[in-house]
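In response to the reviewer comment on reproducibility (Comment 2.3), we provide here a single inverse folding case reported in full, input and output, so that an independent group could reproduce the run without further information from us. The structure tokens appear first.
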């Protein structure tokens, strides 16, 4: 339902949403999950104006970007420079601090249209265009900042799509991690991120955006429910879903979800389970 005082994007109708979620769950459980397909299904669930033609057009755009890259330019650095020369320099894909304030910055179809977005969505554009062109490319989930890697160790080259594709030195990567966590860069932080890790991080970003905007609890709920469709997800998402349902006035459904979460955790944390059950009782009492 569209709220007259809320700006777009508006969610799809229930039947469309159910179909998108079915496809998202199937893709997430497939043997080789398709990152761009999952991102576009997230986009369609958040933005009801993204229809099947729009999803197809976004995939065609990624194919077209790949087609503009040179054929086998060389090693990892040559690939990094070629991709960044196209996407960052010629086409102007980049990010700014203001992009963190926009939901569209987490939606792949909007990032392709605006050529602006969060680090992880810009990285998805880099990854999908370069992968289609045959590059040895992968995502790198640094704490607090997502980047793209080309080639294996010890020839790994890191680039920052948020900064237009700037090639990062080891010191640059250390500064990014230190700025986000205060901790040193560890070799384990540089391993390739799996597609479902990327998708979960995107959904986490959407939840964080919505959490700062209580009037957009609809966006938060949809992100939580998509996260619950991933094969591996934190149990606490059940608690978050219950809280959101109660917040939105769906007291019976919210209380049932809180009870289900309490049942999950009571073996390891009985006092916490008791607190959650009390919250469920409070939610049910709101019906009176």
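Designed residues, in position order:
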């Amino acid at each position: 339902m569209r709220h007259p005082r809320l700006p777009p994007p508006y969610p799809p109708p229930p039947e469309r949403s159910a179909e998108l979620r079915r496809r998202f769950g199937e893709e997430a459980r497939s043997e080789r999950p398709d990152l761009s397909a999952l991102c576009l299904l997230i986009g369609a669930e958040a933005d009801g104006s993204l229809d099947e033609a729009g999803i197809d057009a976004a995939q065609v755009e990624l194919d077209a970007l790949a087609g503009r890259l040179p054929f086998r330019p060389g090693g990892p650095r040559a690939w990094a420079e070629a991709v960044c020369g196209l996407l960052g320099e010629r086409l102007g894909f980049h990010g700014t601090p203001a992009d963190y304030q926009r939901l569209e910055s987490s939606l792949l179809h909007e990032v392709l249209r605006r050529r602006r977005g969060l680090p992880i969505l810009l990285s998805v554009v880099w990854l999908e265009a370069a992968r289609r062109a045959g590059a040895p490319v992968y995502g790198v989930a640094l704490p607090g900042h997502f980047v793209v890697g080309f080639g294996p160790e010890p020839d790994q080259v890191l680039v920052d799509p948020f900064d237009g594709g700037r090639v990062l030195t080891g010191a640059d990567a250390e500064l990014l991690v230190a700025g986000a966590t205060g901790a040193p860069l560890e070799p384990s932080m540089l391993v390739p991120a799996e597609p479902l890790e990327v998708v979960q991080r995107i959904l986490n970003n959407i939840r964080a955006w919505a959490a700062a905007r209580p009037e957009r609890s609809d966006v938060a709920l949809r992100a939580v429910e998509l996260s619950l469709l991933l094969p591996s997800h934190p149990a606490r998402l059940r608690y978050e879903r219950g809280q959101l349902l109660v917040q939105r006035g769906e007291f019976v459904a919210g209380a049932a979800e809180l009870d289900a979460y309490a049942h999950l955790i009571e073996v390891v944390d009985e006092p916490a389970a008791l607190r959650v059950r009390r919250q469920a009782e409070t939610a049910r009492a709101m019906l009176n």
